[in-house]
């Protein structure tokens, strides 16, 4: 098996992301199979990869931003949640993440300063629900 650098082609598996793993399988000096895979599909198809890494690669390959449907980015907390098997993971693209965080920061500054430690979890739940509603409106504009 041999890896060679080729760019500008789509993954043979997901047909969405750019392939940067190019695998050629040879038997008795003859090419019997060529595969061009993106990092996620490559990891998902690797027999030696840990199960958590395969779940993460599969989740990232099929995920879309919950707000706009765009290509999400993967931050550390999402990766940990997927690896743990959390079913309530939200994938978000960079522009939606920035707007969501901006909205939460603004609201926390308005609402959070006079609360006790015990009141913060309830406020965060409420603000997350409001942020989800805000994002639906923000995306539709």
What does this structure look like?
Helix 1 (39-45) packs antiparallel against helix 2 (51-62). This protein has helices spanning 39-45, 51-62, 76-84, 94-111, 120-140, and strands spanning 2-3, 21-27, 30-37. Strands 1-2-3 form a three-stranded antiparallel sheet. The longest helix is centred in the C-terminal third of the chain and has 21 residues, at 120-140. The protein has 141 residues and is of the alpha+beta class. The N and C termini lie far apart (50 Å). Strand 2 (21-27) and strand 3 (30-37) form a beta hairpin.
Q: Which structural traits does this protein have?
A:
alpha+beta, 141 residues, 3-stranded antiparallel sheet, 48% helix, 3 strands, 12% strand, elongated, 5 helices
Précis, in short:
This protein has five helices and three strands; from the N terminus they run E-E-E-H-H-H-H-H. The protein is of the alpha+beta class and 141 residues long. The chain has a three-stranded antiparallel β-sheet.
Question: How does the SSE layout of this entry go?
Answer:
Layout: E1 2-3, E2 21-27, E3 30-37, H1 39-45, H2 51-62, H3 76-84, H4 94-111, H5 120-140
Antiparallel strand pairs: 1-2, 2-3
């Amino acid at each position: 098996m041999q890896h060679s650098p080729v760019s500008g082609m789509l993954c043979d598996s997901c047909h969405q992301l750019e392939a940067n793993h190019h695998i050629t399988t040879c038997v008795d000096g003859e090419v019997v199979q060529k595969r061009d895979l993106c990092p996620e599909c490559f990891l998902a198809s690797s027999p030696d990869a840990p199960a958590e890494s395969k779940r993460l690669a599969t989740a990232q390959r099929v995920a879309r931003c919950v707000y706009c449907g765009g290509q999400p980015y993967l931050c550390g907390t999402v990766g940990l949640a997927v690896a743990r098997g959390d079913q309530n993971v939200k994938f978000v693209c960079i522009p939606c993440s920035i707007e969501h965080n901006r909205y939460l920061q603004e609201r926390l500054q308005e609402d959070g300063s006079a609360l006790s430690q015990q009141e913060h979890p309830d406020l965060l739940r409420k603000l997350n629900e409001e942020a989800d509603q805000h994002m639906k409106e923000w995306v539709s504009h």
